[in-house]
Amino acid sequence: MKKMKRKVIVLIIALCVCSSTFAQLSIEACYEKAESNYPLIKQHGLIEKSGYYNLSNIGKGYLPQIQFFAKATYQSEVTKIPIQMPGLEGLSKDQYGATLEINQSIWDGGSRKAQQKNVRTQTEVNRMNLNVTVYAVRERVNQLYFGILLHNEMLNQNTLYQEELKRNFTQISAYMQNGIANQADLDAVEVEQIKAIQSRTELSYSRKAYIEMLAVLIAEKIDENTQLIKPDINQPCSPDNQRLELSLYEAQFRDLDARKQEVYAGLRPQFNLFVTGGYSRPGLNMLENKFSAYCMGGISLIWNFGGLYTRKNKLNNIEVNRSMIESQRETFLFNSRLDITQNSNEIQKIREVLNSDNHIIRIRSSVKRSAETKVANGTLSVLELMKEVNAEQQAIQDRIVHEIELMQAIYNLKYITNN
User: Fold this and answer.
1) Residue 298 contacts by C-beta under 8 Å, 6 or more apart in sequence?
2) Are 47 and 131 in contact (CB under 8 A)?
């Protein structure tokens, strides 16, 4: 039984090790993690709460509005009746009163409805503006992700290059014993080995920096065993522009329409029901100089014509803002078309360069093998051989760089078009 438990524990540990060893991470997953980890993403909830509170406050305008008013006054003169009548007292110069008034809106000219629509459109604008800002983090992900892929490929090639130099070192050592090569030839190979080690050190530290920055960006630990998935270089690239900025401009246009409706609503009359109760001296009967309670009710009309003075300027200002947004939209589309054209041509150029890279590598490998044969026959120096080895290495590195550049160009186009 104990042996069985021990086997189960070992199996679980082995599975954990294997899962961590073969952990994979795609660029799309990095996009999602980076956007969810971006500090500004927290503002989404704040924007929604702010919009909710503003809508709630406007909605409370439909509730009865209650006002309490109290006053105590002293006046130098009071109204007098030049007739002496029994029981008729003169008014006091000190007067007191307290009133409670309740107003219930019947129709506000559509003002509150327009205000609510304006709050909704402004909330949408803030939401879309935040989405545009957060979307920009993808460009940073592209730089780090493909930077890591490039370093990975360069390190792999560096390993192969060092193995080849080691093989050359062994061969040159054998040639020295046969009198074909000398110590200078061996030193030349050793110098290339040292340079290869230096290059690996530089690549390793640079790759480490890229990995640490990407880990911070996506808030996830990335270790040496994490495998970044290489995107397919043959995937289609759509030039259709689906950027979030276009949705932002449309939201801004809708917000201007809502503001225009609010201006028109402010020009309409408002009807209210009201009830007023009070306790004062004098009361409604101005001929009685004593405290008395009273009440009144009715319907009121409020029509503020002051909005007519500023109506034209407000509408003109809205149209000016509309023209500014339209200008920004046209500028964005113009720059996007330029970027799309540039990146589309860049992708096509790199594809053609990659095709010739394979041919160059084949030729360089053939020349190197021929040089190795000549060195073995004593008709070519080791320095000449190293030149051919380095030329082949450079051709391979060029192809690696071009392949990663193609991947990055494809995803740059995806970023520009949001496809």
Assistant:
1) 273, 274
2) no
Q: Which residue from 231, 229, 222 is spatially nearest to 20, judged by alpha carbons?
A: 222
**Residue 83's pLDDT band (boundaries 50, 70, 90)?**
low
Hey, which residues does 99 pair with through a beta bridge? Answer: 69, 278
In this prediction, what percent of the chain has a pLDDT beyond 90?
48
DSSP 44-77: HHHHHHHHHHHHHHHHGGGSPEEEEEEEEEE-S-
Burial status of residue 285 (CB atoms within 10 A of its CB: 0-12, 13-18, 19 or more): exposed
The Cα 414–Cα 51 span in angstroms is 33
Listed in order, strand segments (DSSP E) in 127-241 are 227-228
Run of H or E including 280: strand 270-281
| pLDDT for 385 beyond 60 | yes
Model pLDDT, residue 177 = 82
Percent of the chain whose predicted confidence (pLDDT) is above 70: 92
Domains of the chain (ranges plus CATH)?
24-63+108-268+303-417 (1.20.1600.10)
Report the distance separating Cα 292 and Cα 285, nearest Å: 9
Query: What is the C-alpha end-to-end distance of the chain, expressed in Å?
Result: 57
Q: Give per-residue pLDDT as tens, 256-298.
A: 999 999 999 888 999 999 999 999 888 787 777 788 898 998 9
Q: Which long-range contacts (CB under 8 A, 24 or more apart) does 310-313 make?
A: 311/263, 311/267
3-state DSSP assignment of residue 399: helix
How many Cα atoms occupy the beta-carbon half-sphere of 399 within 13 Å?
16
* Residue keyed to tokens 């990055």: 408
Confidence of residue 322 (pLDDT cuts 50, 70, 90): very high
Residue type, 85: M
Strand arrangement of the beta sheet that strand 94-107 belongs to? 65-74, 94-107, 270-281, 292-302
Residue 217: which of 164, 169, 147, 161 has the closest Cα?
147
* Residue 145 confidence (pLDDT) above 70: yes
Residues sharing a CB contact under 8 Å with residue 232, sequence separation 6 or more, in sequence order: none
Whether 399 and 358 have beta carbons less than 8 Å apart is answered as: yes
pLDDT band at residue 353 using 50, 70 and 90 as cut-offs: very high
| R_g of the chain computed on alpha carbons | 41
How many residues can be counted in the chain?
419
User: 337 CB contacts (<8 Å, ≥6 apart)?
Assistant: 241
| Chain mean pLDDT for the chain | 86
